[in-house]
Amino acid sequence: MFQKILIANRGEIALRVLRAAKELGIQTVAVHSTADAEAMHVRLADESVCIGPPASRDSYLNIHQIVAACEVTGADAIHPGYGFLSENAKFAEILAAHNITFIGPSAEHIRVMGDKIEAKRTAKRLGIPVVPGSEGAVRDDRTAKKIAAEIGYPVLIKASAGGGGRGMKVARTEANLSEALSTARSEAGSAFGDDAVYIEKYLEKPRHIEVQVVGDGMGKAVHLGERDCSLQRRHQKVWEEANSPALNIEQRTRIGETVSKAMADLGYSGAGTIEFLYEDGEFYFIEMNTRLQVEHPVTEAITGIDLVHEQIRVASGGGLSVRQEDISFNGHAIECRINAEDPRTFVPSPGTISHFHTPGGLGVRVDSGVYSGYRIPPYYDSLIGKLIVHGRNRVECMMRLRRALDEFVVDGIKSTLPLFQELVGNVDVANGDYDIHWLENYLADHH
Ligand code: ADP
């Protein structure tokens, strides 16, 4: 087992990792920018190192500073959290060259899954269902027309190097195709420096359902069920739940087993998420995230398994603590991502939180790095914290969520708490009856 882990992140996720390391008796090192000297993860870590000025590229993305911090403190492993360097294959390689363990998958697996065309090809080879579409990049309009006619309109043009929902164009008919292709190519070229695009069937009303896996890197992998993250704004998840209100136990088991077998065959190591669009009873792979995700606590709530413990165990060569037959899914969990944003316009609202009070009681978890008097710096994402509520079933979970939201106080800045208070009282949300466009449509009508 590791002696000391350096956490190359900030905010609630740095705290999350720190808690797991402490439970395992491992020393922790926090790194921080000059803007984060007063942050909770810095206060709670055994040691801390300032790695640069506020801008992320000079601090949390500064590989040299982070490696140096590791060497100075004698940390033997790095947990990257999510975002920042968590899916940077080069970072994983540099750490390996310095004999520091990267708590995550191999650089090769990060690289394969980071390229959308390569990821889709790999998923297909491993038996994971993918969206019908081109076999790789589409270079000319004639081929594009042929493929689009085969799969049927509407089609979606996507950038191979895409990310964050950017570089996508829908073509509803053949008449729109050439224009959609050239717009997508030029957008991809300027945004990502790579104009390779590919085509897939455009799904009209899918849900976003993702499967959590953990592999031991030695040919074993387990799945921890799915999360439904269909409530999104601008492709950003807002509300996540486990289990999905749309799946039954057979569907859950079937997709879970498909994915865990695929990851076992790949020899995948660590935690990963396979994201699908789900429509009319079918799953369609869209991408794999080779890291811990923001919404992982809903899975922890229904399985009782600490995903960060598993990541650390696997990275240290200790294997998984659970077999598939040990994993069961109990009750229902919902996570709300509470952001420092205006609840109507979603404009970020950094500043000082004059009063912060979190809800408590049975089935309530708050993962947050803020406190009363904390000043949210303007340089990073606007997540204040995550409220995760667990109940024996979805109805109980919703009742508990409503009461937990009522207890939550964030004063001094604007937050998205009022949005969740609205959502928890909405009849479609209560019925679990929503697709990936529901929230955008709701906001257009009500805000
Ligand atoms: P990115 O890496 O840019 O986030 P994804 O492939 O994950 O790209 O897709 C982002 C979002 O775009 C999905 O969550 C979904 O809302 C939408 N999307 C992607 N592919 C399709 C598709 N074939 N049909 C309909 N919507 C899609």
Give an account of the 3D structure:
The protein has about 450 residues and is α+β, with helices and mostly antiparallel strands. It folds into 3 domains: about 5-85, Rossmann fold (3-Layer(aba) Sandwich), CATH 3.40.50; about 130-200, 2-Layer Sandwich (Dna Ligase, domain 1); about 205-445, ATP-grasp fold, B domain (D-amino Acid Aminotransferase, Chain A, domain 1), CATH 3.30.470.20. The chain contains 15 helices and 20 strands. The strands form 5 sheets. The protein has an 8-stranded antiparallel β-sheet with strand order 13-12-9-10-11-14-19-17, with helices on both faces. A 5-stranded parallel β-sheet has the order 3-2-1-4-5. Strand 2, helix 2 (about 40-45) and strand 3 (about 45-50) form a beta-alpha-beta unit. It is globular. The chain starts with a strand and ends with a helix. The model has no long low-confidence stretch (mean pLDDT about 95). Bound molecules: adenosine-5'-diphosphate. The site of adenosine-5'-diphosphate has 18 residues, from strand 8 and strand 13. Adenosine-5'-diphosphate binds near residues 165 and 200. Its EC number is 6.3.4.14.
